Amino acid sequence: MDINSDSINSYLCNCVKKRNSYQFFMPIMDIDAIISHSLDAILNGIAQRVKERRLERNLTQRAFAKRAGVGYDAYRTFEQRGEITLRNLVLCAIILDDTEGFTELFVKKSYQSIDELLKIKEVKKRKRGTGNE
Q1: Separation of alpha carbons 82 and 35, rounded Å
Q2: Where would a tag sit more exposed on the chain, N or C end, judged by fewer CB atoms within 10 A?
Q3: pLDDT in tens, 23-33
Q4: Dihedral through CA 75, CA 77, CA 81, CA 85, nearest 10?
C-alpha cells in the first residue's frame, strides 16, 4: 500500500458535517488501514533484510530454503509478501547466524528506579485476563 496525500486525506477526512452553516471536517482514522500498513511495512522490511543477507552469501532462493530446511514455495512467498511462519523465520535466522533478536522479544521490562519496581511488585500477577470484547 502506498501512502500519498490523497490516501492520507481519505483516511483522515472521511466526512463533512454542517453545523450552523459552517463546514467542519471531522477526522476519522481508519485504524485498520493504518495497522495493516504498519504490519505490512514491518513484515516486508524483515523479508527485505533476509533477502539482502541471502544475496550477500550469494545463495539462490532455492539453495537458501534448502539450507534452512524451509520449503522453497514458503520461502519465495516470504520474500515476495513478507508472510512466513515463526518456525521458518527462526530457521532462516539460524542459517544467517542472527538469532539474538529473537531472545530479546517480549522480555521483561527493565526498571529505571526502585520505586518503579516496587509499584510493579504491588500489582497482582494475573493468571488470565478478564476483559471481554
Answers
A1: 15
A2: C
A3: 444 445 566 66
A4: -60
Check residue 5 and give its pLDDT.
45
Contacts of 96 (CB under 8 A, 6+ apart): 50, 53, 54
With bands split at pLDDT 50, 70 and 90, how would you rate the model's confidence at 13? very low
Grid coordinates in use for 86? Answer: 515463526
The CATH number covering residue 96 comes to 1.10.260.40
Is residue 130 a part of any domain in this protein?
no
Task: Tell me if 18 is assigned to some domain.
Answer: yes
Residue 97 lies in a domain: yes
How far apart (Å, rounded) are the C-alpha atoms in residues 32 and 14?
A: 14
Number of domain units in the chain: 1
pLDDT tens by residue, 79-121 = 999 999 999 999 999 999 999 988 888 887 777 777 776 776 6
Q: 10 near 1, Cβ under 8 Å?
A: no
Give the residue numbers spanning the domain of 33.
5-103
Alpha-helix runs per DSSP H in the chain: 5-12, 31-56, 61-68, 72-81, 86-95, 100-103, 114-122
